[in-house]
Amino acid sequence: FYIGGTFTDGTLVDSTTGQVTTSKVLSTPGDPALGFIAAVHKLLELDEGIEPETIEHVVHATTVATNAIIEGNTAKAAFITTEGFRDMLEIARQIRPSLYDLQFEKPKPLVPRQLCFEVPERLDSKGEVITPLDETALAGVVELIADSGVEAVAVCLLHSYRNPEHENRVGEALRSKIPGLTISLSSDIVPEFREYLRASTTVINASVSPIVSKYLESIGEKLVKSGVSSELLVMQSNGGVYPAEAAADSPVFMVESGPAAGVVAAAALGTALGHPNVISFDMGGTTAKASLILNGQPNVTKDYSVGSGARSGTGAFGGASGYPIRTPVVDLVEIGAGGGSIAWVDSGGALRV
């Protein structure tokens, strides 16, 4: 099942006979889960011989996480980092997608400055402790976060990819004081160097986790009510799948799951037809995506971003115009011109879309 901006598509494959049944319904932006379950019911009606309980796998690709970021509907989140690095999200990077655009503005951080907090601690690049974690200061920060009413917290301390001990202690302090809070530790999400990229990835994970969690929980409940008891699997940005429970904890790995699903399908179809080298083209109602597939395998990169004007691939300045993410993703080009786009020639003879 794939939920796009315009339509929600479902495909039922009989693993014994190979018969394929498809369904298409209008997406329901107010509650995407309604469109999803409508596609399920339509498939079951089209193939009357299939009982819901006999379905072996349910695989879902969605743009729910991406849409939450683009539309600015992320959860209220806080950010904790090493003392002296509170402005990490504000400063971001020097890279500009439009070098000569004097009006260019970086996207606003997903966490406002008043919800960014520092804790005294410091590790060196080998993970050795230079400054021990100040437990008293940490307790004060936890109190401030408890009073702020946030739904999620992202924690990114310097060099935690080499030694996660301080981040783990911050996480424990938050959990003991604020039960039910969504906590994302950079040492769990993306344990690698370059603190801003690590922080951005962790913040995105934290800010969309409550939304994705509720969405997947709603889908799971609706599937059970419909008699479908098989495990719900979610597409990852790299073309693989993982359980819905893991997707709820680490939704940053499914940000580009929708476009990735189309590339994986094109690669499988091309290989089956004896053409392992193909260009995939996937146009929905809102956007059009293209990807190059060599020897039956799409290229996977870790250099992309999501958000306003975001692009993927090494040729897009690391997707500098959006929020950078350092998780594996199928390398593709995406433009905002889909089936719902209207083209015309204006009075000056120029093509407009």
Describe this structure in words.
This protein is α/β, with parallel strands linked by helices and 353 residues long. Helices cover 31% and strands 24% of the residues. The chain is built from nine helices and 22 strands. The protein has helices at residues 32-46, 64-70, 88-91, 135-148, 165-177, 186-189, 195-225, 244-249, 257-272; strands at 2-3, 7-13, 20-26, 58-62, 77-82, 116-119, 122-123, 129-131, 152-156, 182-185, 232-235, 241-243, 278-283, 288-294, 297-298, 300-301, 304-306, 323-325, 329-330, 333-335, 344-345, 351-352. The strands form seven sheets. Strands 3-2-1-4-11-12 form a six-stranded mixed beta sheet. A four-stranded parallel beta sheet has the order 6-5-9-10, with helices on both faces. Strands 13, 14, 15 and 20 form a four-stranded antiparallel beta sheet that branches. Helix 3 links the parallel strand 5 and strand 6. The chain starts with a strand and ends with a strand.
The computed structural class is: alpha/beta
Q: Helicity range of the residues?
A: 25-40%
| Number of discrete helical segments | 9
Quantity of strands, as a count: 22
Profile the largest sheet: 6 strands, mixed
The share of residues in extended strands comes to: 15-25%
If strands are numbered along the chain, what order do they take across the biggest sheet?
3-2-1-4-11-12
Poorly predicted ranges (pLDDT <50, ≥5 residues)? 310-319
